[in-house]
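Hi F.,

I've been meaning to write this up properly since the lab meeting, where we talked about keeping a consistent format for the predictions we share between groups. The idea is simple: the sequence comes first, exactly as it goes in, then the structure tokens exactly as they come out, then a line or two of notes. No screenshots and no reformatting. I'm using this chain as the first example so we have something concrete to point to.
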Amino acid sequence: SAFVERMNARAAELGCHNTHFTNPHGLHDTDHYTTAWDIYLVAREAIQNEPFMTLCNTLSYEVPPTNMSPARELHTTNSLISNWKILGYLYDGAEGIKTGTTDEAGYCLLSSAVRSGQRLICVVLGCEGSGVDIQCYPDSSALYDYGFDNFSTKEILNTNELIAEVPVELSKETNYVVVHP
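Output, unedited:
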């Protein structure tokens, strides 16, 4: 319960106004909810953490044996980055981040993709699917294609560019301020 309290506090710090956690695993609870925007806010922060992104982009991992179980191999369930479970959904430049499915929420996918130095984050919730036909993957790919094809990063003003020297009466030492972007 203390961890869940910290989750809610951190979500609020990130500006998540429509999120409330009741558990750390995300399984259904009527008082456990979020929005695509709030998930984006969390992801925008999380992708800055290199170890987190390394984990999200790990396709498989062998858990060493213990005294309780033999070695086990775990695989990502994100078909944008791996053909392990389902073929046909790989997306060039895709990265993690998290899949999730419950009967109540449907198929959900939080991912990012990078192309020519531009990163997009995609959140799809409530998708339908069965077997190998899971709509969150083609929906995410279509959104990435649209984003990369229709938007770009442009430098409007250089931070060192002088915009203006504005006259002011601040003190005896100066009669203007320099304005930069």
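Notes:
Strands lie at 60-63, 72-75, 94-102, 106-115, 118-127, 129-130, 133-134, 164-167, 176-179.
The first helix runs from residue 2 to 13.

If this format works for you, I'll send the rest the same way.

G.
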